[in-house]
Specification:
The protein has 53 residues and is of the alpha+beta class. The chain contains 2 helices and 2 strands; from the N terminus they run E-E-H-H. It has a two-stranded antiparallel ribbon with strand order 1-2.
């Protein structure tokens, strides 16, 4: 589940889908955001791993 400012904006199962969702939300250079803990908070698992929690 992806939230932006406490609003659910979608569900993704891979990095590329997350990048596209962020791009649609107006985030430029979303690829760079994935490893920035100040911008992306990964919950319930490890970064870049999309498993059921």
């Amino acid at each position: 589940m992806v939230t932006i400012k406490n609003e659910v904006v979608g569900f993704v199962y891979e990095d590329q889908a997350l990048i596209e969702l962020l791009r649609q939300a107006g985030v430029h250079n979303a690829q760079r955001w994935l490893d920035d803990p100040h911008r992306i908070e990964w919950r319930g698992g490890w970064p870049h791993r999309y498993e059921a929690v």
